Amino acid sequence: MNNILFEHTEHHKGNRLSDVILGGQDGLVNTLGVILGVAAASQETRIVLAAGLAATFAESVSMAAVAYTSKMAERDYFKSELEREKREIKEIPEMEVEEIRDIYRKKGFHGKLLEQIVKVITSNEKIWLQTMMRDELNLEPVVNKRVYKSTFYVGISALSGSLVPLMPFIFLPISLGIYLSIILSAMALFIVGAIKARITVGNWGKSGIELMLIGIVSALIGYGVGLIFKV
Questions:
Q1: Helical H segments across the chain, by residue range
Q2: Is 8 a member of any domain?
Q3: How many angstroms separate the CA atoms of 147 and 76, rounded?
Q4: What Å distances lie between residue 106 and 112, 126, 176, 202, CA to CA?
Q5: Is residue 19 part of a domain?
Q6: Is residue 53 in a domain?
Q7: Domains in the chain: how many in total?
Q8: What residues make up the domain containing 119?
Q9: What's the gap between Cα 82 and its chain centre?
Q10: SS3 for 127?
């Protein structure tokens, strides 16, 4: 397949932020749930640390793998749609020209100016394909570099997030470790939610509280399961 190169000027800050939040929140919440459940059930620091470390590394690798496979799926889907558009331009160019005309008509162009735009775009297959992929299908190319970066950000964020609830049990007894682990995790989730709102849109306080409540409630389910099997 011939490669079609597209020019990109954005730095994908939103994608990086999404990767960090996805990995960090998932790693923190899942590991916290495991730790609280094991702590409630066993009351043994050694077992809690073993379970927490196992969850930390398993979750980090798993999340990185999920990020990789999902981005690869996006890339493959983009390639398949690109090939379809290339075929349609060759086989049914009249319909594809009309689609370009319709796209720019909806943008507010009419008459001679509209026809000039259509003529310029359809005279260059690269620009024609780019316009169809972006404006008709709302698809952007996923390059290999982006796949690897997403995998890295998600994996590292999951690892970092997982260590937050685990740290108190290294230095404190089980009872204090549980409380401090919940407090640190709640603070971390609130900060992530607040940063997300400040970088994107929304009220930072509301966003922080929402992410904190979702994470802590989810993790406390693990604690409840641990209490059921308490020995």
A1: 13-42, 45-91, 93-106, 111-122, 125-131, 144-166, 168-171, 174-199, 204-228
A2: no
A3: 12
A4: 15, 22, 62, 30
A5: no
A6: yes
A7: 1
A8: 33-228
A9: 24
A10: helix
